[in-house]
Amino acid sequence: MNVALTIAGSDSSGGAGIQADLKTFEAHDIFGTTAVTCITAQNTKGVRSICPMGLELIRAQIDAVFDDFEVSAVKIGMLSSGAIVRAVADALRSRAAGAVIVLDPVMVSTSGHRLLDREAVQALVDELFPLASLVTPNAAEAAVLGGGEVATLDQMRAAAAAVRQLGAAAVLVKGGHIVSRMHGAEYDQSVDLLDDGGEITLYPAPHLATRHTHGTGCTLSSAIAANLANGFPLKEAVARAKQFVHGAIQHAPGIGGGSGPLMHRWQSLTSRND
């Protein structure tokens, strides 16, 4: 069985962060391991507080995993501070040779809570972009990183190119957050855009009008990492991950009073009902 490591924050509501990553890994027949960077107190309505882990403990978790497992893929999520970014980058430079790295540059929660301070954004670019096989910003994050508005398909394309020029090998701009401003004859749907340095690939899917989207970014990036760990090439890994997230939203359990969680084991549930 292939092994993946998620380096991310803990979500007490279970819908995002390492909890979503582990559920996603399990759904893809990947054995998931973790290095917790922060503990958050949150639910579907918002983030209440954040407690970063000590740098030595973060490094110890990463070392413990690599000392015992052959890790095929690493997914990086919430890091919270520049110091944590640098600690993670240092660990991965010395331990993660041969593993694909998917970086989800978590900056702002769905509810609008700032999850990455400004100093850490530059550290993210300087320290982790060069190590990442893929960076997966949403529209708001791509706007911060690329320095321009991201509200149309052309702006997504420009932002992906700008982010890739910062040092990322490939960039997937997630367009779900801007679908209402992308309505048109061809793109009346949710579109993600992949720039791998060779060509642009679009991943359209019917837009789902629902509030149950908590953890979609975490789930997509961990699903891509899982598919890469299972040997799929990048474009196919993204396509399969997009399909997985779409199904997880469609089969969301409908719980929580805010942005509700997804159903990560939807494929096993649907096959059971066939």
Characterise the protein shown here.
- By secondary structure, this protein is α/β, with parallel strands linked by helices.
- It has one domain: 3-Layer(aba) Sandwich (UDP-N-acetylmuramoyl-L-alanine:D-glutamate ligase).
- It is built from 9 helices and 9 strands.
- Strands 3-2-1-4-5-6 form a 6-stranded mixed beta sheet.
- The longest helix has 17 residues, at 234-250.
- The chain starts with a strand and ends with a helix.
Keyword list:
UDP-N-acetylmuramoyl-L-alanine:D-glutamate ligase, alpha/beta, 274 residues, 3-stranded antiparallel sheet, 9 helices, 6-stranded mixed sheet
Describe the secondary-structure layout.
Layout (H helix, E strand, L loop, with lengths): L2 E9 L5 H11 L3 E13 L2 E7 L2 H14 L2 E6 L5 H14 L4 E4 L14 H11 L5 E2 L3 H8 L6 H13 L5 E4 L15 E6 L4 E6 L10 H14 L4 H17 L15 H8 L1
Parallel strand pairs: 1-2, 1-4, 4-5, 5-6
Antiparallel strand pairs: 2-3, 7-8, 8-9
Helix pairs in contact: 1-7, 2-3, 3-4, 5-6, 7-8
